[in-house]
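Deliverable D5.2: sample structural annotation.
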Amino acid sequence: MVGAVEEHWAVGRVAELAGVSVRTLHHYDGIGLVRPSARTAAGYRAYSGSDVERLREVLAYRRLGFGLREVADLVGDPSADAVGARAEPVPVPWDCADGLSEAYWRRPGAYLEDHVRRAMSVWTRGGPKAEQRAVRSLGDDLDSGRWAERNSDLADLDAADLGLRLLVA
């Protein structure tokens, strides 16, 4: 799209919308996990829609208990520009039956089931130790009620934008 201007948001606004601290965003930038696609003339970070989408994906994996190193291995190159396409969001319904890794976002107890995880390649990419840590952490959070408390905003959603994108050329 020649001449198109993409909207960007300040780091504080992105942190507020995502429910993370500005310091977290600075850290993610520093380790190359979520980098802002622009900087203002004064050098401040400016996040595009695709940057925010990548952040959502990172946070979804973090909610499952993956460490930052594992998350970095799981999220790929976020740029659709490399193939000359635009990325359209693909919301995941709460009762998705396809078994993809994002399918159980409102039913996280399913991730504790071995047969559910075996059907998702994402769990093999982090390795068995990362999987064990994530499952243990998620189980603890579900048992204590921490998961429900931290994710109360998901309870009434019919579908969620979890970072899945359809590339349209």
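Annotation notes: The longest strand covers residues 45-48. The first helix runs from residue 11 to 18.
The annotation will be released with the project's public dataset once the embargo ends.
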